[in-house]
């Protein structure tokens, strides 16, 4: 059994419970941004979750250390939702958040040809954004494949119709006999 396949169908999640002082606000904002980059599920104020694996646990442990260094409190927990429906709700919320990010990439990719942007620069930027989203995409929505295909299509624009004579291969000519 993997960490995400409990006997009741639920998987293990790593939770970070944290509290930070209101002032200074800089550590609170920095931690919030890091949590957002990780793609956490917000369970309540000061309580976030990610599917449990070594990487997510380590990432949340680093953030817990930062919270404590900022004169806050933090603890890491491993837990399973009590009901499969609770986990489905968490998963759906995370997938919906990533779907919105992929839709934003789709929208940007659709604007590149009409906006007269440098396609190679746009492709580099959109690919970087897809990598960032992919790093926090634990439950890929259908929009993921659509966004990747839209960015790839910028690199491989559709072929224009060529005249039939240009498309047909030329017949091989026999070598000419010397006269």
Helix content bin: 40-55%
β-strand amount: 5-15%
User: Shape, please?
Assistant: globular
Output the number of helix runs: 6
Poorly predicted regions are 164-172
**Spatial gap, N to C terminus:** 81 Å
Describe what this molecule looks like in 3D.
- It is a single chain.
- The protein is α+β, with helices and mostly antiparallel strands.
- Helices cover 54% and strands 13% of the residues.
- The protein has six helices and four strands.
- Strands 2-3-1-4 form a four-stranded antiparallel sheet.
- Strand 2 and strand 3 form a beta hairpin.
- It is globular, with a radius of gyration of 25 Å.
Brief characterization of the structure:
54% of the residues lie in helices and 13% in strands.
Helix-strand blueprint:
Elements (H helix, E strand, L loop, with lengths): L12 E7 L5 H14 L2 E4 L2 E5 L2 H16 L3 E7 L4 H32 L3 H17 L7 H13 L8 H4 L12
Antiparallel strand pairs: 1-3, 1-4, 2-3
Helix pairs in contact: 1-2, 3-4, 3-5, 4-5
Key words describing this protein structure:
single chain; 179 residues; 4 strands; alpha+beta; 6 helices
């Amino acid at each position: 059994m993997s960490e995400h396949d409990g006997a009741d169908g639920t998987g293990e999640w790593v939770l970070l419970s944290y509290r930070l002082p209101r002032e200074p606000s800089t550590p609170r904002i920095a931690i919030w941004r890091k949590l957002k980059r990780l793609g956490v599920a917000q369970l309540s104020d000061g309580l976030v979750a990610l599917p449990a694996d070594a990487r997510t646990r380590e990432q949340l442990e680093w953030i817990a250390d930062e919270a404590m260094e900022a004169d806050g409190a933090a603890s890491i927990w491993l837990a399973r939702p009590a009901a499969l429906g609770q986990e489905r709700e968490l998963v759906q919320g995370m997938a919906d958040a990533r779907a919105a990010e992929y839709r934003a990439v789709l929208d940007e990719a659709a604007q590149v040809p009409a906006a007269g942007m440098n396609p190679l620069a746009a492709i580099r930027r959109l690919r970087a954004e897809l990598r960032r989203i992919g790093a926090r995409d634990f439950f890929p929505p259908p929009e993921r494949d659509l966004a990747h295909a839209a960015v790839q299509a910028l690199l491989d624009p559709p072929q224009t119709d060529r005249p039939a004579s240009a498309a047909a291969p030329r017949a091989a000519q026999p070598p000419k006999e010397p006269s």
